[in-house]
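Subject: mismatched residue count in predicted assembly?

I count 507 residues in my input, but I want to confirm that the predicted structure covers every chain. Input:
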Amino acid sequence: MNPKRLLWLMAAISTLPVCVAFAASGTQVAPLAQEVAQKGWIVYAARSAKNRTWDLFVMRPDGTHRRNITNTPDREEGGPRFSPDGKRLLYRNFPKGTVIHHDLWGFQGKLVIAAANGTNPTEIGGDREYPWASWSPDGKQIACLTKKGIQIVDLGTKKIVKQLPRKGIYQQLFWSPDGKWFCGVANARIMWTVVRMNAATGVLNIVHEFQSCTPDWLPDSKHIIYPSRPAGQKGSGFTQLWMSDGTGKEPRMIYGEDGSHIYGGALSPDSRYVLFTRCAKDGGGSERSGAPICLMRMADAPAIGGPSPALRKVHPNARNASVLPLVDGWEPHWTYAEIGVQE
Amino acid sequence: MKLDFSKYCIRRGRNVTTVLWIALLLSVSCARQVDTGEGPDVSSRGSFEVTARLDEIRGDLIDDPMYDYAHVMKYTVLQVHRGQVDQETLYVGHYNPAKPRSRAADARVQEIGGNVKQFRVGAVHRMALEVPIDDHYMGGIINKYFGKIEDPVYWAVWTNEVTE
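Triage response: the counts match. Full output below for your records.
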């Protein structure tokens, strides 16, 4: 055979698995989009096309019915979380032009609580106050992470009703849906360790060590989802989405992709679906314009995207999941409640 | 060629004088380079002020633009200037130690500084400190002494070089 032809043939064959994977993904995402279309709303931060500042948006989980719910050309907003009943929204707002730091955003700007559709925004405190605020199960209190400790603040009176030593937790504190636990990122034996703390006793246990961060709770309050960058990868490696139970047992990858850092993990309220962002650059994209928000069925985990030959060697049983790409954004959160947005 | 001995002696005498002058200037100049590290910031910030010798840096100093850390280093105290420091050995966390102290502060940590350009074992530093580190800093800490020491870890607020 003509060597040139042979070269072309080999090149064509080498791209075949990628083409098949993407074609399969393409054919499977339409049913996935249909499946989730009416399952509540996703809130996320993204740069407004009009004024280029960070605003908050909502959309149906299939990516339709997008609405800018803050629309503030002179402010930036980020880090939205629906209250457990889906009626309110907690987020931070920052002066225009603030670079939202992927590790510091919970300390930056002011805490705002609004109706779930973005109306009636109320600033709670001043700049850098109530850092890393997260909802209590009944939505009447927030847990904050300060140098002094973990502070439980009553939203009605703004008084600190309880304080616990933070025991090395330094960012990304989240209160479990049942109110019994906190998770966060800590200096334990080593830094970048995901930990769980008993909210009553303050006793802390390690969930996952080594280059793990941004943890969040599964709705059962028993499992934690977190991005992690395992050792042994080429160069600095890539961050994958993982989960464990609260004691750190049964760690398992949910989604990974060589060439992309996976952050922003968030579960649907029934734990059947998972949201994440996939970003070529480390950090999740908050310093720039976010990263594609993607949606996947948890039943498809563990899954690997793209060719990812190195990752497939480590996880030979991982699937080629249907991954529904939605929109560029950052830190998505999901409620099944109807939030009063006009369709 | 005829050698003019008297001129040779005069020239040689001048050279000796020049050498003596240079030696004198050098000694004066060296004396002026003694620097105790004292300064308005190191003497007013933090709750403690010590002069200490950097004995050990465990692990590599990471310089990653995406992430910021404090790195715990081991010192021997040479002199206590302010506050009560009873230990001879101090464990001190320096923020972003791969950067010169004048450029170490950022959005996370704003009130730190000094004139140390690079951390080298054997160097002597005059430091303004706080303790424990967790009361003054909330971020990643590389602490290779974790689980091996009982001592509290200090937080370096201001770090000046001491030269003698």
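Chain B has two domains: 1-33, 40-162. Marking this ticket as 'not a bug'.
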